[in-house]
Amino acid sequence: RGRRLSTPAIRRRKGGAALVCLTAxxxxxxxxxxxHVDLLLVGDSLGMVLYGFDSTLPVTLDMMINxxxxxxxxxxxxxxxxxxxxxxxxxxxxxxxRNAARIMAETGASGVKLEGGEEMAPTIRFLAQRGIxxxxxxxxxxxxVHVAGGFRATGRSEEEAAQIAADARAVxxxxxxAIVLEGTLEPVAAAITAELPIPVIGIGASAACDGQILVTxxxxxxxxxxxxxxxRRYAELGGMIAEAAAAYADDVRGRRFPGPExxxxxxxxxxxx
Length: 273
Ligand code: KIV
Ligand code: NA
What we know:
Strand content: 5-15%
Keywords: Cytoplasm, Magnesium, Metal-binding, Pantothenate biosynthesis, Transferase
Number of strands: 8
CATH superfamily: Phosphoenolpyruvate-binding domains
InterPro entries: Pantoate_hydroxy_MeTrfase (IPR003700), Pyrv/PenolPyrv_kinase-like_dom (IPR015813), Pyrv_kinase-like_dom_sf (IPR040442)
Helix content: 25-40%
Binding site for Mg(2+): 44, 83, 115
CATH architecture: Alpha-Beta Barrel
Family: Belongs to the PanB family.
Bound molecules: 3-methyl-2-oxobutanoic acid, sodium ion
Number of helices: 11
Subcellular location: Cytoplasm
């Protein structure tokens, strides 16, 4: 094949055509999305979206590796990145390398993403210099929900805006090939995008960014526990699934399913029906 978009190719899209990114957790979803996107992120949001946890903190490395490998199997052209889960990289650059190397080796993904700003810069440099492409993630950082006190927009005060800009700068200088900027006020996102030499992929961070990412289940109506204001719904698949289940239930109870065409018959004994 060899047609998959590489992390250097993503890096070169800075200031060019908007980078189109979505999350994917499974092989079938990856197959649906792959022809339409530049990048598929196996996000640790899967803990909330697929597993019903109320934060991303319980997500394990094994979960990320299993879903990462499934998404790589379901795609041929998108660049696939896998999130490093909480607790798998914060302790030290060495711990981060050991776990990122497992993700790379066991999934076939093209890179990893991890949350954090200035404090993670030495770790990002350690990985990037040792063969692991890293995408940063600053602004609203869901793995830090207990420190932030909730999922809320960032960059509201001058001080917080300056810290996010410093974090983004540190991540870029450490060698990240791209950075996700989540839940950040538009002027702050615009200034960071203008300043950084790497693509800024926004989520709730305005159209000023170099690209956009959303959680696919939010986009297609498959996750309704909570829909952030920055999501646009393009389909209501959850409602369609419920309607399909109701119609099936009716047919089974009314003995209208299965029909003769769904049944196996002995060869050569074609009953008249
Ligand atoms: O986990 C995730 O899905 C993410 C994206 C929303 C950026 O980190
Ligand atoms: Na994530």
